[in-house]
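sanity check this:
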Amino acid sequence: MIDTAVVVCPRTDAPEANLLGMRVAGLPLLVRTLLTARQAGIERFLVVASAPQQRWLRPQLDGEARLEGRVRWLEPSEALAAPADSLLLLPSVLLDSAALRSWLARVGHNGSLATPEPGAGPTAVPAWYLPACLEAARGGESGLARYLTQVLDDGRLSRVPWAGASWQSIRSPQEVPGIERQMIAAFRSFEDGPIVDRFVNRSLSAHLSRWLVASRVTPNQITLASLLTGLLGAWILHVDGLPASLVGLMLYQLSMVLDHVDGEVARLKFQFSRLGKWLDNIGDHAVNLAVVGSLTWRVAVDGTIGHMAMLGLAAAIGVTGSFLIVFWWSLAGQRPEARRTGPARLAARLLSTLANRDGFCLALWATVLPGHAAWFLWALALGANTYWLTWFLVYGLPPRVSQR
């Protein structure tokens, strides 16, 4: 696969030249372009920019450890030595890293000029085409599109289909808010619940993420805030009465919203990590266990303490069993329906669909707010244990070969 990218900054007379200093989702356009390509598997970068452009673009990369030692700056007049194939990119074109990686794998090193379509998208360029492509790209998106259309008409351009999220061209600062909203919406997962996650948590998290992504707050700090907010809400839930219940539930809901925010900010700023995934999931589970413990304390009264403690323990086992089985499959990068067909596949898809917190959240609000916290514990003790036992008995653990 191609491992070198040439990022071309347009001439000052090109419309896109005024966009180079603009930030999208907390990152300058040039930095976002480089990190996207890095995430797609690109190891080395050649940034072509005039001397004046370099003077104010170079500081954008200061302190960016993920690109340290990987970027070489060149002026347009300098001779450019490139490998057999390189990836040509324009900073004004936003790409999805997964889609770009997939496209690069299909292109390979075929030695031909290749692009998804004659436009401003990614272009695989052999060494002998590079000077002409660079000159065209210096004219911005329109200049590159005209050149690629010409070579396509001459039969010198191969078209490699693009799959996944399409690229997005930025032409003015006014487009940025809409593009940021689209980027965040694309992060929605099959693991999201169809009701609470979709209509409440994701709606609120989108606004918070757009605000926090422009700050220096890290995803792990947001994860910690989610944990502390959830634990505080759980602690308040041990107090009987409508006011305490409402405050505790609202804090728990805010914790769920922040749980989405940390993932959205991590992806927007390319700060996701395996450690962050562990912290996120373990923090969620800790909050859920705290809710169970707090409600067990709340409903325990003289003469029934032993019975309520057993009920709370059964609920905690159900929550923990469901968390462990789902998280284990998640770490393995598999879903239970992956290698199944027919009714077994439908059953596995149903189990995957239920592996979200909508049920937990809806049951919590529906029982605690009207003062029936014991009903919530019974629902967990019966439902959660049935869920993880069914999953384990039918599908077991993910194959060891898929562990990462």
